[in-house]
Each structure stands twice: as structure tokens, then as C-alpha cells.
Q: What sequence folds into this?
């Protein structure tokens, strides 16, 4: 039987036109059948629709998370990973000790945490396993760095994990002391292999970890999320890049997948492997949407690839994948019609990628628009903005990141920090933006926080008082577009989601007030009244009045 719903509101956000209307959205089964600023046509009313009048509550297209690492985020949400902080090695270890009381630990129980980062410490020195041993002499401890690529381990953890190190990677990934002993810090592929071993869960266990997190996301108004590969671990079962379509499939089968997931496995799994995987997941809830690559690192560890040396240093950083190889990968993706999401933070990495994207599109004209994205783009050189426009690449950005780093950005890149995160400039150059969080690099950032950060360039506490480079602030309609239609374009699914448009899937969020009338500083406080995916309410805060009045 056909189901007809009408959602009425005095504030409906039209993402494509970047404007609000007062009126009604008509939903027939899973899809949007009409959006009206005046009266709803009689043909719908005659079919006894279910009418929800939201009054002043703003109706928006469902929010879309453009960049997250879902499984790791779910582990944090389920407190399988303890979040810690501290401005030194000892402070971090002590913080973990205070959060994980030793008397409640079982023998051999793993302690996994996240939240250390040398660039944020007063003393810029890699930590030692001995500091952790002091607090945790028996249980294995692994603390993930904020860059998600590095682990700090105690001796008990090293005893378990070191025998698993691939000898080819030992020198590169395992830090040793002057005496030649492992110091406790392990990076890159080996770190990822260790995480794979620590979180050695079955698909059913992974599903149980993901399910509550997915429900939580719907309570934030999210109807879609992009799940991007981490650096992959080489395991006996092949690469583990933490992209688990089979787990989502299991959840969908149990009717426990309340939002869409757009998956980006590591592109170097190979075109054939990606296409085979994509052919297995063809529903609009689970898609293999493209491939993920990392071109460089981050500025705060001098690993982002810059055009000129870092402030007070000789290094310019370097690419993780050599430029010639990256060019080949971009051409291969373009030729194969596979959208890429490439981590590029340094201005040189961004420049090289843009040149390659433009050249690849020119060479493979017949393949149509393959919608690629660059991720983060923190230090894009302003002279490269026209190049970015020409490339048609989307800027996938995280509005919380400038507010994490604004105090220290100039320490690494000097004057160049003044043009970092140039959101307004992207808009002026008609470069489409997609908002995300990069969870769990940051945690607990909601879509409403994202809107607030990008509109104010201030922290939740209101710092700095005038906003950081406030000329780069965006307007309400611009930020809403980046969190909806922009992010839909980033996941290559804008023909189906991202705006309230006839024929698109009915993915909708209802805010608890009229966002147009909300003071900017209160936007972060807006809650979600309801979240609809495929025409079904996946989340409802409170029942609304159903009336037959139109
Ligand atoms: Zn990321």
C-alpha cells in the first residue's frame, strides 16, 4: 500500500537554491514527491496522508557526514577506547591511570586509549613504554595518537605484539632507544596491524559495537555517513583498512542499519577488488562509493608536504605516496570511474593532486564527471584556488579543525597560517564544500557544532572573541548546504540525497526550533526533533501533533 506523508513547516531549507521556504514536503513511500510553498495539491490530500505540522521547527535535508572513520569512532562511543588528554607524557599516563582503575582490571585485559600527541606536549619528545609501565606493569596498554597512525605501548603490550611485526617494516615503523630496544612507539602499517590484532572481533561483534553508534548518529540528524579507510594493516587475511561492508550488511539484515553508509576502502586494494566489492553492495543503504588515499601527513608533525620549508626548519615535509605514483593512481581511478578521496594537507600535496586531477579528466573525457574530493586541504595556497575550481574537485573540510589548531598553526607554517582553512574563499571561487568531522580524530562534534564553527570561527566557548580570521566565516545557508547537498556530492550520491527535491530519497531532519530565527551563538544548542531515512522516522525526540488541517 502506498504511504503518503506531508511534513509542514514555516521553515524548510532548500539546499540547491540555498534558501528557506514556508510550506510542505510531500513524501510518497520512500521518496519526495513534492515540495510546495503554497497549498498542497488536492490529489495528495485526497489520499488521506499522514500530516505532521512542525510549525516553527526547521525541516532540512538529512545531514551527511562527509569524512569519518566509523569503526574506530564506534569503539570510542562504546568506551572500548578510553579518551585521555594531557600536556605531557606523564600527564597522559596519569590521566589514563585515573580513568582505568587498576583494581578492576582482569589479568591480561587490554587497555586501549586515544589522546596523545607530541606536537601538543610541552616537551616535544616521543614517549617511552617505561612511563606506562609505571602505572600499568601487568596489563597490556596501547594508546592511539591523535593522528590515528601511531601507537604508544607499554612493555606488556610490546611482549604480545612485537613477535607479529613484519621484519620488512621493523626499521621503518618501530622506534628504538639508543640502546636498540623498542622504545614503546610504533607507527604506520605496523601500528595498524597491532590495532587489527587488538580489536580482533568477529563480524557479529563488530556489528554489536557499531549498532548503538549508528543509532546515536541518527539522533544528531545524520541520515548518511561516509566511512573512509585508515592506513591499511597487512594481515594474514589481506589488507585491513577498517572498512567493513559485510558488517553493515549484517546490520541491515537485522533491520539495525538506520542510516546510509558510503564506504571508501583503501584504493590500493586494486581496481578489480574495489569493483568486485562494489558489485556485492548495490542497495542505497550500503555503497562502495570510491577509494581512499593518503598523499601526505599533517603540519603539526611536519609531515604535510609543503611548497616551502616549515617555519624555522629546513624540511618541507614529503609525500607518503611519491608524486609520480600518485599521478598514476589518479589516472587509474579516473579511467576506472572510481571517485577518490585523497588526504592532502600541505600546499604542495594539494597543488600536485589538482594538476593530476585536471590532466586525468582531460585524458579520459568519455568517462564523464568522476567526483573526486580532497580531504582537509588545510594549507591550500591561495594562488591554487582557481586551479581547484577548474579541477571540479570538492573540498571535504572539517569546521572543528581550525578551532583545535588556530593557536599553534603559525608555529609550524608561519605567515601561511593566515590563509589556512579558507572556507569563504572556497565559496567565492565556486568550489563546492562538504562538511565532516574526521571522527574520531575529533569526537563528539555534531552537525550543529559544524554549522556553528563555520559561521563563527569560534570554539564552543566563544574563543577567539572576534572569530579566527573572521573574513572566512560562512553564512547560514552556505553551512547548511555544505552539510547536506555538498556532502551528498562528495559521496557521489547527490542525484538521490542531499536536498528536498522531487524524486530524491526522503532523508530528512527536523530541528527543534526555527534555525533562521536562532542567534548564531545558539545554533550549536539546537537539538534534533526527528530524523527520517527512506521516509521512515529512524529517530523521534517527541511525538508531533498529527492533524488533518492543511
Ligand atoms: Zn580521516
A:
Amino acid at each position: 500500500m502506498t504511504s503518503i506523508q506531508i511534513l509542514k513547516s514555516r521553515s524548510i531549507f532548500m539546499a540547491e537554491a540555498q534558501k528557506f521556504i514556508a510550506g510542505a514536503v510531500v513524501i510518497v513511500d520512500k521518496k519526495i514527491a513534492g515540495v510546495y510553498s503554497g497549498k498542497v495539491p488536492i490529489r495528495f490530500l485526497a489520499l488521506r496522508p499522514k500530516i505532521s505540522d512542525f510549525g516553527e521547527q526547521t525541516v532540512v535535508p538529512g545531514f551527511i557526514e562527509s569524512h569519518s572513520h566509523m569503526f574506530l569512532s564506534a569503539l570510542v562511543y562504546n568506551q572500548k577506547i578510553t579518551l585521555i588528554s594531557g600536556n605531557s607524557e606523564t600527564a597522559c599516563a596519569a590521566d589514563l591511570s585515573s580513568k582505568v582503575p587498576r583494581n578492576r582490571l582482569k589479568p591480561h585485559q587490554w587497555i586501549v586509549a586515544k589522546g596523545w600527541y607530541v606536537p601538543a606536549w610541552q616537551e616535544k619528545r616521543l614517549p617511552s613504554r617505561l612511563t606506562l609501565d609505571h602505572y600499568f606493569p601487568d596489563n597490556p596498554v596501547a594508546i592511539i595518537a591523535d593522528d590515528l597512525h601511531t601507537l604508544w605501548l607499554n612493555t606488556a603490550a610490546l611482549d604480545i605484539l612485537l613477535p607479529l611485526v613484519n621484519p620488512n617494516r621493523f626499521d621503518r615503523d618501530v622506534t628504538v632507544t639508543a640502546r636498540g630496544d623498542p622504545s614503546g612507539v610504533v607507527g604506520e602499517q605496523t601500528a595498524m596491524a597491532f590495532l587489527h590484532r587488538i580489536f580482533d572481533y568477529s563480524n557479529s561483534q563488530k556489528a554489536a559495537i557499531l549498532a548503538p553508534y549508528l543509532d546515536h548518529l541518527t539522533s544528531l540528524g545524520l541520515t548518511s555517513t561516509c566511512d573512509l579507510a585508515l592506513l591499511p594493516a597487512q594481515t594474514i587475511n589481506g589488507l585491513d583498512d577498517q572498512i567493513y561492508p559485510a558488517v553493515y550488511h549484517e546490520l541491515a539484515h537485522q533491520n539495525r542499519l538506520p542510516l546510509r553508509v558510503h564506504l571508501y576502502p583503501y584504493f590500493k586494494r586494486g581496481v578489480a577488488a574495489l569493483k568486485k566489492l562494489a558489485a556485492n553492495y548495490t542497495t542505497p543503504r550500503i555503497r562502495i562509493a570510491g577509494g581512499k588515499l593518503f598523499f601526505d601527513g599533517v603540519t603539526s608533525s611536519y609531515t604535510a608536504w609543503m611548497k616551502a620549508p616549515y617555519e624555522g626548519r629546513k624540511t618541507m615535509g614529503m609525500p607518503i605516496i611519491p608524486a609520480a605514483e600518485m599521478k598514476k593512481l589518479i589516472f587509474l581511478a579516473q579511467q576506472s570511474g572510481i571517485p577518490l578521496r585523497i588526504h592532502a594537507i600541505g600546499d604542495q600535496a594539494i597543488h600536485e593532486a589538482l594538476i593530476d586531477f585536471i590532466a586525468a579528466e582531460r585524458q579520459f573525457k568519455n568517462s564523464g564527471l568522476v567526483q573526486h574530493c580532497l580531504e582537509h586541504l588545510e594549507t591550500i595556497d591561495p594562488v591554487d584556488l582557481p586551479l581547484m575550481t577548474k579541477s571540479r574537485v570538492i573540498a571535504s573540510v572539517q569546521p572543528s579543525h581550525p578551532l583545535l589548531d588556530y593557536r599553534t598553526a603559525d608555529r609550524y607554517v608561519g605567515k601561511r597560517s593566515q590563509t589556512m582553512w579558507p572556507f569563504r574563499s572556497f565559496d567565492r571561487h565556486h568550489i563546492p564544500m562538504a562538511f565532516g568531522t574526521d571522527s574520531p580524530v575529533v569526537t563528539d562534534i555534531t552537525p550543529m557544532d559544524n554549522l556553528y564553527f563555520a559561521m563563527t570561527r569560534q570554539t564552543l566557548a566563544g574563543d577567539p572573541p572576534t572569530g579566527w580570521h573572521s573574513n572566512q566565516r560562512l553564512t547560514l545557508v552556505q553551512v547548511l548546504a555544505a552539510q547536506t547537498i555538498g556532502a551528498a556530492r562528495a559521496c557521489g550520491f547527490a542525484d538521490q540525497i542531499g536536498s528536498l527535491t522531487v524524486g530524491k530519497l526522503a532523508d530528512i531532519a527536523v530541528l527543534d526550533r526555527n534555525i533562521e530565527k536562532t542567534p548564531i551563538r545558539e545554533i550549536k544548542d539546537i537539538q534534533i526533533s526527528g530524523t527520517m531515512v527512506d521516509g521512515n522516522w529512524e529517530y523521534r525526540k517527541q511525538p508531533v501533533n498529527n492533524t488533518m488541517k492543511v
Q: What stands out?
A: Residues 113 and 418 are 33 Å apart (CA to CA). The pocket of zinc ion is lined by residues 67, 69, 228, 438, 441 (CB under 6 Å). The chain has three domains: 4-62+502-540, 66-70+201-490, 81-198. The first helix runs from residue 42 to 45.
